[in-house]
Sequence to fold (249 residues):
Amino acid sequence: MIAALLILVFIGSFAQRITGLGFGLVVSPFIVLLLGPYSGVMILNLAAIVSASLVLSRVWRDVDWRRFIGFVPTTLLGIVAGGMLAHALPGEWLEAIIGATLIIALTVSQLIGRTSFVAAGPSWIAGSGFAAGAMNSAAGIGGPAMTVYAVLSKWPQKSFSATLQPFFMMTGVASFLVKFLIDPGRLVSLPTLVWIGIFVMLVLGVTCGSLVAKKVPAGAARMAVLVISYAGGVVTLVRGLLDIFGVQI
Fold:
């Protein structure tokens, strides 16, 4: 299980370097199954901070800092709301919601891309920030909400990809702190060697992604992330539903 987690950390950081997102989408379903929905997402938040930091060091010149600042207020409100939801719900229900939310968010982000509507104005930034913050805090998957906004607003991929990195750093720190303050006793401690392995895989993933970022079409890489994420969302949803109905497998 730990070996599989490390492999997915590598894949997620590799995809995030190429497309701007993918770490939470790839790792979230598995780490939830491994450590539970509450503690798993807290661990994911910490790893996501490191992953985004590594990517940001290579793309910071392309960050749209003005747009990033616009997301901050409502994103922080969403993080608080998501953290309270995660604390209040039983583990199996949260697990099912995480899986269903991931599937729905991914599907919506794909369907929206076929429309000609262009989102403009602060209300879209505010709403997208709140949704991304709530989803990141509850499930560690703030990327899909941002993807929907990027598609609707016709945000150029290069700037979008770069701006997601400080956004993920902010949401990772805030989400972890909110959930830790709400219930510090539910944080699972991982062995030091596991943390070292996660860090090594993060560095390797970002480094390898940098080597091929200009050669691999972003669309192809994002499609691979979506396929893995859909599979993980289905597994997480089914696992939660089985636990809710008391079905043993």
